[in-house]
Amino acid sequence: MKKSNQTSSILLLFLYLATEASAAATPSQIEKGFKAVNDPSSAPFETLLTDPTTVVSFGFLQVNSTHLDLAVIHLPSGQPLWRANPANPARLSASVSLSFNGSLVLSDDKTGVLWSTTTATGDVVILLNSSNLQIVKFDELEPVLWQSFDHPSDTIVQDQNFTSTAALHSTNQLYSMSLGSNYLALFMEFGPGVKSPMYWKHTAMEAKNQIIQGKGPIYAQVDSFGFLGLYQKENAPVDVLPFDSFNREIPGFRRLTLEADGNLKSYYWNDTVWVTDYVAISNLCDLPNPCGAYGVCRTGQSQCSCLDNRTDGCLPPESGNLCLSRENFWVLRRKGVDLTNKDLLPFQKVQSLEECEGLCEQNCSCWGAIYSNASGFCYQMDYPVQTVTGIGDENKIGYFKVGDQESENEGESGRRKVKALVAVGVVLAAAGVGFGTYRIWITRRRGRIDGKNGSMVQGLASGPYKNLKTNSFRSIELSDSFGKNEGMR
Ligand SMILES: *[C@@H]1O[C@H](CO)[C@@H](O)[C@H](O)[C@H]1NC(C)=O
Ligand SMILES: *[C@@H]1O[C@H](CO)[C@@H](O)[C@H](O)[C@H]1NC(C)=O
Ligand SMILES: *[C@@H]1O[C@H](CO)[C@@H](O)[C@H](O)[C@H]1NC(C)=O
Ligand SMILES: *[C@@H]1O[C@H](CO)[C@@H](O)[C@H](O)[C@H]1NC(C)=O
Ligand SMILES: *[C@@H]1O[C@H](CO)[C@@H](O)[C@H](O)[C@H]1NC(C)=O
Ligand SMILES: *[C@@H]1O[C@H](CO)[C@@H](O)[C@H](O)[C@H]1NC(C)=O
Ligand SMILES: *[C@@H]1O[C@H](CO)[C@@H](O)[C@H](O)[C@H]1NC(C)=O
Ligand SMILES: *[C@@H]1O[C@H](CO)[C@@H](O)[C@H](O)[C@H]1NC(C)=O
């Protein structure tokens, strides 16, 4: 009886595959000489290999209907569990193919090899029901030459070892997760030249087992009993991070995913939906960038606004590093703001707000600082300004640099230039000075203009004189733009 059941479900499966994936039958393994050409007009996921229990499948995955990647997906939900090349997917095109010649190779007839496992001597590719895609060599003591479990993308699944040599990256590549010597942490990613700041850290409790120096790095594993374990030695967790389903016997598939908003969440599949049973950051405003760059997230109200009180969208995000670009900047100040990750940032004890701002101002790897008047601590952000949290406490004062990209085209930077000129006009009018004095002053300030009341500093790169001559007083009449910018008073 069991057998006939199986037969009918296999029949059903074949029907499903034939209709859904336009594959007559998916092989249980991929052998040497295999080649599959992508069909851009096919379903969003084209199956190439399915595990024996038909829980997961490996194949071509269309991304945004413009790009293509290799992926292992959870069949009942369609959820990708692994991606080959998420940071740099191929263009969706009929010239993209996957072949296996000992190495799994994704290539484009036009541009060559896009991705490869570089395992010259593999015999077959198999997919386990754990979702682990493996390249195996026959007759070897160590038959597994390569496995997708060692190269996670944004997700780890039950029983997958997450080691200190691996990292998770959110699909948008803005966040990462990795292990330290005794902790698991989440980081923001800004690309080359900017150190990745940590925004969440879980240190091993070492309640039952200690981490022993020199006994190797720790690794993490999602356990079927509903927890994330940190281990140095098998079966001896140095930490247990329990999920809501802790100690409940849940047969469903489990995954831990670093989401595109920077949160880390654990799920199990209940046969219908993915049930969330762990959330690392439960408060929206504690996420790294919930309101975008130069945004303010107000705790409790879950509401976004802008540091400069603009209502037509906040300042555009900065990327990169002021040291490398030698860019000028202007400054935005705001009372009653804080950073949720400030305990993970470098800080110094200073005597005054001015000292705190001075530290940041003179340091081109500093994008902003929060000064706490109560404690005298000065927290420096060595990464581009993201969302800060709005708090009632006016004793916390934020100082934020805004890059001043000199650009000829209109639009965002054009608008900012207008503001710059308004600021200049205000300074000039207030001081009652002429251009001559102004020029000497601006030269001394190396291209920076300091608003006297300290609420806004506007920098101008080389050549402001020309702009002033042609535009400044016309700009002052743009009272609309001026009115919006309360910061200039
Ligand atoms: C897909 O779309 C999302 C949001 O629309 C975007 O952030 C992402 O960069 C796109 N990915 C690719 C590969 O184009
Ligand atoms: C497999 O194909 C790739 C791409 O064409 C090539 O670089 C590699 O040398 C081949 N490997 C073997 C073992 O033939
Ligand atoms: C994989 O299959 C084995 C039996 O072969 C089973 O015990 C296990 O629960 C399956 N795992 C998943 C995630 O389905
Ligand atoms: C995870 O690591 C343990 C201990 O090193 C090992 O026994 C186990 O086979 C590994 N699991 C996988 C799926 O690689
Ligand atoms: C799974 O969860 C959904 C939503 O909570 C629920 O409606 C459904 O009944 C659950 N399915 C099972 C099999 O428990
Ligand atoms: C500049 O700031 C970075 C990060 O806050 C810090 O590591 C570095 O030591 C600072 N440099 C100087 C010269 O103070
Ligand atoms: C900082 O605190 C001192 C004393 O507690 C107070 O006099 C001063 O006004 C505060 N400064 C700011 C900027 O809030
Ligand atoms: C923005 O509005 C807040 C609250 O109304 C005020 O305290 C702050 O000074 C304003 N900031 C700027 C830059 O205008």
UniProtKB/TrEMBL annotation:
Signal peptide: 1-23
Pfam families xrefs: B_lectin (PF01453), PAN_1 (PF00024), S_locus_glycop (PF00954)
Subcellular localization, as worded in the UniProt entry: Membrane
Cellular-component GO terms for this entry: membrane
Chief localization: membrane
Apple domain ranges (all copies): 323-404
Keyword Ribosomal protein belongs to the record: no
GO biological process, one term: recognition of pollen
Name of this chain's protein: Uncharacterized protein
Listed transmembrane segments: 420-442
Cited function: Involved in sporophytic self-incompatibility system (the inability of flowering plants to achieve self-fertilization).
InterPro entries: Bulb-type_lectin_dom, Bulb-type_lectin_dom_sf, Pan_app, S_locus_glycoprot_dom, SLSG/EP1
Domain Bulb-type lectin, first and last residues per copy: 22-150
Keywords in alphabetical order: Disulfide bond, Membrane, Signal, Transmembrane, Transmembrane helix
PANTHER family registered for this protein in UniProt: OS07G0415500 PROTEIN (PTHR47974), RECEPTOR-LIKE SERINE_THREONINE-PROTEIN KINASE (PTHR47974:SF9)
SMART domains: B_lectin
Organism superkingdom: Eukaryota
Membrane-protein topology: Single-pass membrane protein
